[in-house]
Specification:
The complex is a heterodimer. Chain A contains no helices and 9 strands. By secondary structure, chain A is mainly β. In chain A, strands 1, 3, 4, 7, 8 and 9 form a 6-stranded mixed sheet that branches. A 3-stranded antiparallel sheet of chain A has the order 2-6-5, with no helix packed on it. Chain A is globular and about 40 Å long. Chain B contains no helices and 11 strands. In chain B, strands 2, 4, 5, 6, 9, 10 and 11 form a 7-stranded mixed sheet that branches. Chain B has a 4-stranded antiparallel sheet with strand order 1-3-8-7, with no helix packed on it. Classes of the chains: A mainly beta, B mainly beta.
Chain lengths: 109, 118
């Protein structure tokens, strides 16, 4: 069982927006602004899409955005494109270690 | 741009010790900017953070693996390493080395599949 809880699946049509949730506790997500989101395509290494809750690394489209409220973090993908279909993982600083969510498979219909 | 590459045996016997090395290029492992981390992913499953090390040698481990994990750093070779003892089939996974800033892994190796089997 993962430390952070994500829905196993999410979906949307091209051009639509989809939001993936990540539920933690007051010891991880709720305590620190160090939440990250990773995208992973099959057979590939994960790629960071959002770090420190809302920041986007250089090269990540601004269609990807992050937010946090209390013990929950969110990844929103706007203007869905076919290439956004992938697994998405959240992670959070949790004191002296890092915890991950179980992952959400995003399907572009 | 940092590049990381994992190396080590792809097959480990049960009860033995898994050993992997990560070679860093494109930057110094002594940099104060990064922690150096190991993350694993069992086949078909999610990501699990194993632990990290700073250039000073300070280490941080996943509480669930702490009793079996050792991460070390060799600044002269620009490498850091993972040892996981007393492995079982449950330790079969793709092992990634990463560079971490504020608990976010920005650069990843390609991953190394390690199978635990007799």
């Amino acid at each position: 069982q993962s430390a952070l809880t994500q829905p196993p699946s999410a979906s949307g049509s091209p051009g639509q927006s989809v939001t993936i949730s990540c539920t933690g506790t007051s010891s991880d997500v709720g305590a620190y602004n160090y939440v990250s989101w990773y995208q992973q395509h099959p057979g590939k290494a994960p790629k960071v899409m959002i770090y420190e809750v809302t920041k986007r690394p250089s090269g990540v489209p601004d269609r990807f955005s992050g937010s946090k409220s209390g013990n929950m973090a969110y990844l929103t993908v706007s203007g869905l494109q076919a290439e956004d279909e992938a697994d998405y993982y959240c992670s959070s600083h949790a004191g002296a270690h890092v915890v991950f969510g179980g992952g959400t498979k995003l399907t572009v219909l | 741009q940092l590049q990381l590459q994992e190396s080590g045996p792809g097959l480990v016997r049960p009860s033995e010790t898994l050993s992997l090395t990560c070679t860093v290029s494109g930057g110094s492992i002594s940099s104060s900017s990064y922690f150096w981390s190991w993350i694993r992913q069992p086949p078909g499953k999610g990501l699990e953070w194993i632990g990290s090390i700073y250039s000073s040698g300070s280490t941080f481990y996943n509480p669930s693996l702490k009793s079996r994990v050792t991460i070390s750093i060799d600044t002269s070779k620009n490498q850091f390493s993972l040892k996981l003892s007393s492995v079982t089939a449950a330790d079969t996974a793709v092992y990634y080395c990463t560079s971490e800033v504020n608990s976010s892994s920005h650069f990843w190796g390609q991953g190394a599949l390690v199978t635990v089997s007799s």
